[in-house]
Amino acid sequence: MTMTTKPEPTTSVATPIQNSLTAGRLPTPAPWLILGAAIAVSAAIFGVMGLAGEAGYNWGGALLVGALLYIPSIWLFSMLVEGRRRAMDRLVTALVTGAFVLAMIPLISLTITVITFGLNRFDADFFTMSMRNVTGEGGGVLHAIVGTLLMTGTAAIISIPIGLMTSIYLVEYGRGQLARGITFLVDVMTGIPSIVAGLFAYALFSIFLGPGTRTGIAGAVALAVLMIPVVVRSSEEMLRLVPNELREASYALGVPKWLTIVKVVLPTSIAGITTGIMLSIARVIGETAPLLIAAGFTQSMNWNLFDGRMSSLPVFVYTQYANQGNPPEAYLDRAWAAALTLILIVMALNLIARLVARFFAPKFGR
Amino acid sequence: MSKRIEVRDLNVYYGKFLAVEGVNLEIEPRSVTAFIGPSGCGKSTFLRTLNRMHEVIPGARVEGEVLIDGNNLYDPDVDPVLVRRQVGMVFQRPNPFPTMSIKENVLAGVKLNNKRISKSDADDLVEKSLLGANLWNEVKDRLDRPGSGLSGGQQQRLCIARAIAVAPEVILMDEPCSALDPISTLAIEDLIEELKLQYTIVIVTHNMQQASRVSDKTAFFNIAGTGKPGNLIEYADTTTIFSNPSVKATEDYVSGRFG
Ligand SMILES: Nc1ncnc2c1ncn2[C@@H]1O[C@H](COP(=O)(O)OP(=O)(O)O)[C@@H](O)[C@H]1O
Ligand SMILES: [Mg+2]
């Protein structure tokens, strides 16, 4: 086939024909100008109001009212220039962005606060010492870091196999009453208040080891109770995402069901499962109440999960804040630095989860 | 290598729903048999009873007998896993394993079953199967790349290579070309022509030309209405079905005057 009528290049058109598809359009910087104007107006109003009262200038209020003013203004301008559909688009964009910014404010504020206060004691001593024989200044959180890692790690070792196998049962084998019952119980477990999990572990170990025993393993069991339902739920979602076609392809090759699960279904979903597990760890690592009850707290190093009380970072933060000694600043600084440490550990876990997920993800492309 | 299939009074159910009713059919070894018929008449359902894939669906069950060289697949002690090693299957949508390379996909039947295989045997098997599926020349330089990076037609041929690598007696294909372009379709039809020298092949297709091009015998399935079971209406040599069918419904269907 040969093209005989090639479209002429339209570089030198004398009288451009009005394109019927064009519509009015706000210039690109217009939204920013409107936002600036809205904030300026609101700042002026606050300024006038400030003259009357004696309180200082309210910057936050000015910004907030300015942002609120921006939403109807952008809608109005867009309505005049661009028409209904675009105006609606701009309005919703403004609302959604506003909601996002609003949600970010506490996060940013929290991060800045924790970092500024936490850095006071973020030193070598802090990570190499326990609180043994420390009153007043000095001391460190090594015992709490060790406790947190030991108890969370043990909780993970308990709950990952149980949770993963439960989810495999639910997705691959479970039918009828039993599966529905398990799903219901898992949902109920998700809703257990964390302090109840702590009381459960405390009571359980009191039965066997006598009343009043607080050990690391009890804390780990409390955390596992909280962690299992999260692992079950997230792994279940991930296993359900594996297309049935892959299972059938495997069956059609004469592969038994259990091998299909181990070698096709799990590898295909491992990235998502790992992410879910890491998130569940991140969720329980910050638990305070159950550990306070089940594992208690101590000032010294304790490497033994089965003997004696064990500190953890959240409980350390709590006790430092709740039982301030003299000078109180030393206790508060330690609490902030421990909080910062905890946040950093959780961030590191999330980072690892992402790397693992990327590493395991099924590879596409040529 | 290839085997004869006999189906006797087969009823296929999804729970309480009777999807296919009263099929009697004999398939000769080393032949290509095509199943045609309107959508929803139970072609796929019936095909999947031939290697016990049907029961993978919860609640699905079968009444009647399917004999492969005289052995009833539905005898109580028959292990469906062993059946599926003899009766391979290629699905409508190409489904290579996304976590595996091209080579691993071909070896999937061996590797997934935890069988040991020496490296040279594995390489031979990969080459033989890919040659058998007419894919070797296109992928021989990138055997270690992911199988999901191939084109649709190549993926489907990879699935065929994967199916023949376990050396089945029978290969079932459920609309293997419906997701492919005409050139890939031709490649697969040529391949079926070659495969039939060694295997018994059953293929479901919506494409009349394809049925008449590749198959020796054709089975026409039909359904009386939604919610009714599908039936085998006519089963005969492909030339007979397309030129001189004995049932009016078959003639209407193959000549496009259906409904
Ligand atoms: N997984 C299933 N569960 C219940 N009914 C099904 C299922 N798959 C197919 N069916 C029903 O079985 C009948 C036959 O379907 P199918 O074998 O897919 O037809 P075809 O392949 O000829 O288009 C249809 O009525 C369909 O709704
Ligand atoms: Mg079908």
UniProtKB/TrEMBL annotation, chain A:
Localization in the cell: Cell membrane
Pfam families named in the record: BPD_transp_1
Membrane topology annotation: Multi-pass membrane protein
GO molecular function: phosphate transmembrane transporter activity
Keywords associated with the record: Cell membrane, Membrane, Phosphate transport, Transmembrane, Transmembrane helix, Transport
Coiled coil: none
InterPro entries: MetI-like, MetI-like_sf, Phosphate_PstA, Phosphate_transprt_permease
Record's keyword annotation contains Transport: yes
UniProt KW Lyase keyword: no
Residue span(s) of domain ABC transmembrane type-1: 145-353
Positions of transmembrane segments: 32-53, 59-80, 92-120, 140-170, 182-209, 215-232, 264-285, 335-357
Biological processes per GO annotation: phosphate ion transmembrane transport
Biological function: Part of the binding-protein-dependent transport system for phosphate; probably responsible for the translocation of the substrate across the membrane.
Family according to the record: Belongs to the binding-protein-dependent transport system permease family. CysTW subfamily.
NCBIfam families: 3a0107s02c (TIGR00974)
Name of this protein: Phosphate transport system permease protein PstA
Taxonomic lineage: Bacteria, Bacillati, Actinomycetota, Actinomycetes, Micrococcales
From TrEMBL, chain B:
Keywords in alphabetical order: ATP-binding, Nucleotide-binding, Translocase, Transport
GO cellular-component term (any): membrane
Gene Ontology molecular-function annotations: ATP binding; ATP hydrolysis activity; phosphate transmembrane transporter activity
Domain called ABC transporter: residue spans: 5-248
InterPro entries: AAA+_ATPase (IPR003593), ABC_transporter-like_ATP-bd (IPR003439), ABC_transporter-like_CS (IPR017871), P-loop_NTPase (IPR027417), PstB-like (IPR005670)
SMART domains xref list: AAA (SM00382)
GO terms of biological process kind: phosphate ion transmembrane transport
The protein, known as: Phosphate ABC transporter ATP-binding protein (PhoT family)
Organism whose genome encodes this protein: Agromyces ramosus
